[in-house]
Amino acid sequence: MLSRAAANLFWLGRYMERAEATARMISMGQRMAMLPGSPSHSEWASVMQATGAINDGDGPVSETDIVTNLVLDTTSASSIQACLSRARENGRAVRTALTQEMWESLNDDWRYLQGMDPTTARQQLSRILEWVRNRAAVFRGAVETAMLRKDGYYFLRLGGSIERADMTLRLLNVKYFLLLPETEVVGGGRDHHQWMTMLHAVSGLRAYHHDYLGDYAPWNIADFLLLNQAFPRSVAFSYTQINACLEKLEKSHGGSHACQATARGECNLLERTDINIIFNDGLHEYLNEKIAKTARISREVSDAYYF
Predict the structure, then answer these.
(1) Could you tell me the pTM of the whole model?
(2) Whole-number Å distance between alpha carbons of 26 and 21
């Protein structure tokens, strides 16, 4: 496969995953902003920080800022509109590598938000966010049910898995340390709803109940999002997918690169890590380290396959 085509598929996977993750984070911000005693500007600021967006205003972050910067902005790599548009551009560049269903999904998605003004988007925000999640699911279903398991598929899945690991790490990092300082007492009613909302953001509430029986201790939430090998949006599961895709590419191209070694090492570490050790050593430092390691793997993939 040409490196240009590999890069298009890799970033197609990343942008589609990022659009969905951004929609999930905005939904989480909506839920948390409605909690009694919750400062809405703080909730929206944490969403902006988690997605890596920059607030252009000088004052507190509002819902209008979120709509402008994370939904409709066509220039920011963090916004839903920009992600869908860039995903389509990458898909168009490798049109023959996509199934008809994949292309139709991309072609329909990017037009939806075109021409929508901030007032209308804010009024319809919940509907827009649900639409984004549904369209991402349609695209993912088209990939899994019809795309040939060749290099193109593995580059697409690789990009999506890297993006998912990165966004889960950022979500946990921002929400845990901005909304639950060490001096705050864990276990109150607002705290309970915060954790439930975080689990809603990753569609993990039912899965969490199954494994942890509804115990909303911070270390259990962190364990679930970081180390759970069975939950599809955990960092450990995402790294398993990253490693599997890189192993397939290693076999098909007959050579190993730094990215394969890094991914294997991270998978081994995640399997052996205990959440109590992470908390003792510092969760914030651990998350920052993993965010940097995920970015490093992305760079190593680009270097290995000449993106």
Answers:
(1) 0.91
(2) 9
The 10s digit of each residue's pLDDT in 99-146 is 999 999 898 777 888 888 999 999 999 999 999 999 999 999 999 999
Side chain identity, residue 165: A
Name the one residue in this structure whose structure tokens are 């990009």: 159
Calculate helix-pair angle for 189-201, 218-226, nearest 10 degrees.
10
Closest CA to 161 of 84, 246, 277, 63: 246
Cα–Cα distance for residue pair 79/235, rounded to 1 Å? 23
Helix residue spans in the chain (DSSP H): 3-33, 40-51, 63-66, 80-93, 100-109, 118-123, 125-146, 151-179, 189-201, 205-212, 218-226, 235-253, 258-272, 275-281, 283-304
In the chain, domain spans = 1-147, 149-307
